[in-house]
Design brief:
This protein is α+β, with helices and mostly antiparallel strands and 125 residues long. The protein has a domain at 22-96: Sandwich (Immunoglobulin-like). It has one helix and seven strands, in the order H-E-E-E-E-E-E-E.
Length: 125
Amino acid sequence: MRNVLLYCFVLLCSLHVLAGPRKIKGVVLAKGDGLPLPGAAVLEKGTENGVGSNVNGVFELKLQNKKSDSIVFAYIGFHTQEIKLEKEKDFYTITLEEDLGDVEEVIIIHNLDSPIRKRRAGCTN
């Protein structure tokens, strides 16, 4: 009987190891209008492990380091945000705030109407 209890205890303790890496899921949204941010960078802090959010702002990150306690979110034109991971929580809704910074004016140059000039190389008779 004692061996059976010891075997069950070892089996239950090893299930945590067999479960594999922790997966963090969530969605990244813009704070102002609540629209999803496709292509937002989701990075495990302290590693090079990261993913990008899909077209709906949804991401799924497998943590490489079991001791990781925070994730960093970044998107062009928005403030970078770092969140602390909670042990029991696996789904996060992240809202990033716009970073207008010192931008006063944006100039867009569109040059598709100009003709393309081609020169031919070679000799002529």
